[in-house]
Amino acid sequence: MKTNASAPLARLREQHPAPRLPRILVHCGTAGNAMGATRYLEELRIALGDRSDSVVEAASDGANWAAPAATVAQGTYMRRFERLDLHGIDDVIACFNGDCGDEANYAGTGGRGLTARLGRNDGTLGDVLAQGGYSALDRALTSTPEQLLDAIEDAGFTGRGGAHFPVATKWRLAAADTHRPRMLVVNAEEGEPGVFKDRHLLEGDPHRLIEGILIAHYAVGFERAYVYINGQARTARAIFENALADAAAAEIFSGAAWNQTFGLKIHVRSGAGGYVCGEESVILNSIEGERPVPRYKPPYATDRGLFGNPTIINNAETLCAITTVFEKPPPPTKLVSLSGDVPRPGLYEIPVDGATTWTSLLVMAGTNPLDVQAILIGGPSGVFVMAEQFEEVLEMRSLGAGGVVAFGSNTDLSQITRELASYNMRESCGECTPCREGTTRMVALLEHPAEHRKEIANLIEILTEGSLCQLGGMAGRPIQSALDQFPTAF
Question: What is the mean pLDDT of residues 159-170?
Fold first, then answer.
């Protein structure tokens, strides 16, 4: 990623040099801090004394099961030390001093994909630039917007928020409207239970999202961009805003670093954190200061969205993925937030390559697939995948937003289904009758499902067809999936 840099990018790297090595990156952030990582940050600084400035705070690398953890950057290698609460810090200090043991245990630098820099940078612009940050933007600026859109189309990029609509098609729709100011909304609300990929990206590699936004702006030409972050993700918002300030100070954000004028304003907004706040039109209302409820469609956001202007809404992962467009080839991967009955829960970047299966993912997570009876994809709006389907090849569209929960053999799946129905009932905004009344009625029917199978089926149809947004429209989806996949449980 460092080769063939343009003169502007090379100048940026000179102005913001890479940090010196060796050093110790302690994985803090939301995931690490929840497991007491800050304690080990202080212990390492005390232990190193006058070299304590070599101990720096970083975000999680996605291996949440390993927390509290730290990574030692030593020479051309990086090595993660896991579960410091069990193993202490002696091996970390020894590695920092040059005794890292068998090199086969190292994780090499320069990995590909969206997680390549997670946990391996300290958030400073110099560190990110040294690891390839803004190289894709640099390359994009050497092409025309149309050539950039062609490259995105040829690479087959689709949205990563769940719908998986082709990115180039959506962007071309916006670019074609040259008579009105265009808006970009970045959906990092992530209100779905069990999904935490966007939070990891914002905390661990915020410059990648900024780079993706600027690439989108170069391709389409937006007047303003709004990054909508979950109101409970305070750490993620603070880190992202710091990265924005650094990019602005380095004249990346303005375009002056490349002797250009981008003319884009980026605003950061937060919602209340409710499940319905992930719905696109709810985000628009929230940003405008209106009541956070869905809008009637049509009109659609691409025609009349934020403040009445044509608006493109992209998930944060989508824009981060665009930064890999010039890799040979771009990695066909999807971020998956894996939790539940697995030894190694966390964030996984899995290849969607026509070969990877659910069994592959479970093995990555350290479990025997025979010990898992089902997987839930998509949370309260999702579907169940049963053990006999684990050898099916993973497809991008089937992964939705990437929330995956594994259930062990002792889990009562009928009770899980009832809990999903109760969650949808609690999270309904109450704007439309099918969802407001239907989700409440569904919870009651599931108390005695064997006696109400026909009523449940009819109610699922009403929810699906009559609800104003997809909270209600998909509230019956996990229930229908459960009735299809394991009917005897009811």
Answer: 88
